[in-house]
Amino acid sequence: AWQVLFAKPGTPEEALAPIREAALRAVADPAVKQRLAAAGVETWPDPSPAAAAAHVRAEVARWAPIVSRMNLGG
């Protein structure tokens, strides 16, 4: 499993930056890291928006054929 924070396309950077910074501070906190590790959660080595977007694109490409075959797309 993975987690990503999404925002509406066109959201201004000045709105995104504080959210991104808070999320990065949270996952850098030793207590949070410990709790995440205890839950089996690994943080991404590259938390950049570009890396997250690339990961999401790869996951969509990976799972889209399966979702389509199983008629799960709605």
What does this protein structure show overall?
With 74 residues, the protein is an all-alpha fold. The protein folds into 2 domains: 12-43, no CATH class; 45-74. It is 62% helix and 0% strand. It contains 3 helices and no strands. The protein is flat and about 45 Å long. The two termini are 22 Å apart. The model has no long low-confidence stretch (mean pLDDT 92).
Global geometry: flat
Number of DSSP-assigned strands: 0
- Number of H/I helices: 3
Strand content is under 5%
Number of domains: 2
- Poorly predicted segments: none
- Main sheet summary: none
Helix content: 55-70%
Counting copies of identical and different chains, the oligomeric state is single chain
Rg is 15 Å
Helix and strand pattern: HHH
Distance N terminus to C terminus?
Answer: 22 Å
Alpha-beta content class: mainly alpha
Mean residue pLDDT = 92
Give the SSE layout:
Blueprint: H1 13-28, H2 30-38, H3 49-69
What's the short story on this structure?
This protein is an all-alpha fold. Helix content is 62%, strand content 0%.
List keywords for this structure.
62% helix, single chain, 0% strand, mainly alpha
